Amino acid sequence: DEAQLEAGFQATIDRKDRIEPRDWMPDAYRRTLVRQVAQHAHSEIIGMQPEGSWIGRAPSLRRKAILLAKVQDEAGHGLYLYSATETLGVSRDELTEMLISGRQKYSSIFNYPALSYADVGTIGWLVDGAAICNQVPLCRTSFGPYGRAMIRICKEESFHQRQGYELLMTMMRGTDEQRAMVQESVNRFWKPALMMFGPPDAESANTEQSMAWGIKTHTNDELRARFIEMTAPQAEALGVTLPDNELDWDEFWTVVKGGGPCNEQRIAHRKQAWDDGAWVREAAAAFAGLDTSSPRG
Ligand code: ACO
After folding, report:
1. Whose CA is nearest to atom 23 of ligand 1?
2. Whether the model pTM is above 0.90
């Protein structure tokens, strides 16, 4: 019966084994995973926009090639994560509709604009750095497909973080204007990057249950503190000053609820891309329905 199934499920989690798609799971566990993994997938895809806007304006062929590869990686991460979400019984079409209609969230950080080329470096260093700090523990999350996707994603995120740091280091060796551009960019991104970890533990509605289920293994504040500690010596080596760590949680909730600087633009762009791609999805579905096994098929 249900109680026995639930006890077996919890025992699997408690001995740090994985829950797989065909295993029994409580509805609330499934719902929480769909919420978190879909939000994560949407963040990867929406996250292509701020940096993508710099591909056509990169200062050299080398920088352009790096940025192009990085933004493509983010698309790949979105696809791994949508696939992991699909194993829970929702389709990618449904998830995309929920994103576009505002019923599912994506990370607050991608509602801030990339205003200067230094932002490409800062996003790699701080935003992808924060993402790694949050995602390395998720490699051991209790749901198998999510944890396995995280392993591949973290490897690529490490490259992203390093390319960002290297870009900033190059600018810091340049002119006074370039150094000022880096500092200005870090000033704008530091607090939004710290907010990526989610609200303070006391206001985090989901943490306790998600930790009991082994979906999360650390609280939001624990990971935020770890990130600050990791980043301080990197800032020193780079020669930039990090702003203080006082966060404005009203700003965070405004951005999460759709009122950030770029929310409307991000969703409008995503919707446009989804609508423009309709013919590709239709053609792929029609092709899948064809008998291609015969030479004339
Ligand atoms: N941006 C937008 N919404 C957020 C953010 C954020 N940075 N942080 C928290 N929220 C939302 C939560 O989704 C939740 O709302 P919901 O219940 O309607 O879904 C609410 O704020 C309260 O937060 P928590 O209870 O703390 O939520 P949760 O336990 O899910 O923790 C966290 C949030 C830490 C972001 C978690 O979901 C997580 O680890 N997700 C995976 C990582 C991820 O999504 N990264 C995306 C950015 S990194 C990148 O793509 C490069």
Report:
1. 204
2. yes
